[in-house]
From TrEMBL:
GO MF, one annotated term: non-membrane spanning protein tyrosine kinase activity
The keyword Cell membrane is annotated on this UniProt entry: no
GO cellular component: extracellular region
Name of the protein: PKDCC kinase
Length: 246
C-alpha cells in the first residue's frame, strides 16, 4: 500500500502541470500516510529545474552506491533526470525495505522484478506504475492463486460464531501482534494457509476488510470457547474436531 501510493505520487510529480518535479530532500521523514495515501509534508525542497547539459557526459546521475548515464536532449536538458532521481530514491528508501516482504509467494517474483528494474532504472515511472497496477489486480482478483487441491472440504464451518479473543500463536506478516491475522482472497485460500501452519486447528473469517477489500482471517491453535457473532464464520479442521461434540 505504501509503495503503490508512493508510485502514484511520483507519477503525478513526473507529469505535473508545472513540469517534472524532483524532491531534492527525499527522505522517509518527509512523507506521512493520510487516509491510506502517502503525502509529502514539505515541498520547500521541490524543484522543476532539470540539469542543463551540452553533451551526454554532463548527465550522470550520481548516488552513493550507483551512477547512471543519461542523455542530453536537443534542448540542452538531461532527459528525465528529475523523474529518475525520484524513482531511484523511492527504490532505495522504500522499495528495498518493503517490497520483498509480506506478499503471497506467487506474487513475490513480480515484486522482485519491480525491485530490480527500478534499482537499475530500467523502468521509468510509467512502467513502474503499470507493473504495480498489474500486481494489485492479481492480488485483489485472486488470479495469483495457483490451482491446488480443494482443502476447505476438510473443515467444518460454523456460521454465526467466533472464538474468544486472546493471545495465540504468531505468524508473519500478521495484522495483529497478538496472533496470526492475515488477509485472504477466499475461505479456500485460508484453508490452504491453515494447512501449511502446524499450529493451526481453526480459522475465523469476519466482515473486517483490508484496504484492497480482502477479508481478514484469524488463525488459531484451538477452537474452544466459541462466542456468538452474526458477522463471523469459524472453520474447524475435521481432524481437530473428531471425537469432540460441536
Amino acid at each position: 500500500q505504501i509503495c503503490l501510493s508512493l508510485v502514484k505520487l511520483l507519477f503525478y510529480l513526473a507529469h505535473s502541470p508545472l513540469g517534472s518535479i524532483v524532491l531534492l530532500d527525499f527522505q522517509p521523514r518527509q512523507f506521512v500516510m493520510v487516509d491510506g495515501n502517502l503525502k509529502v509534508t514539505d515541498m520547500d525542497d521541490a524543484s522543476t529545474e532539470e540539469l542543463s547539459c551540452k553533451e551526454d557526459n554532463d548527465c550522470t546521475l550520481d548516488f552513493p552506491t550507483k551512477s547512471f548515464p543519461l542523455k542530453c536532449s536537443a534542448v540542452g536538458k538531461c532527459e528525465g533526470i528529475n523523474e529518475k532521481k525520484n524513482l531511484f530514491n523511492a527504490y532505495r528508501y522504500f522499495f528495498t525495505y518493503l517490497l520483498p516482504h509480506s506478499a503471497p509467494p506467487a506474487l513475490r517474483p513480480l515484486l522482485s522484478d519491480i525491485l530490480n528494474a527500478t534499482g537499475d532504472l530500467r523502468y521509468g515511472i510509467n512502467e513502474t506504475m503499470k507493473a504495480f497496477e498489474k500486481v494489485l489486480h492479481l492480488y485483489k482478483s485472486g488470479l495469483y492463486l495457483q490451482k491446488r487441491p480443494l482443502l476447505l472440504k476438510d473443515y467444518i464451518s460454523l456460521k454465526g460464531f467466533r472464538t474468544a479473543e486472546g493471545e495465540d500463536y504468531k505468524c508473519w506478516p500478521s495484522y495483529s501482534h497478538l496472533g496470526c491475522l492475515l488477509s485472504i482472497h477466499s475461505a479456500e485460500e485460508a484453508a490452504a494457509i491453515c494447512n501449511s501452519q502446524s499450529q493451526c486447528q481453526s480459522f475465523i473469517i469476519t466482515q473486517q476488510r483490508t484496504w484492497t477489500g480482502r477479508p481478514l482471517a484469524s488463525f488459531q491453535s484451538s477452537w474452544t470457547d466459541l462466542i456468538p457473532d452474526t458477522n463471523a464464520v469459524v472453520y474447524i479442521k475435521r481432524s481437530a474436531s473428531s471425537g469432540e461434540r460441536l
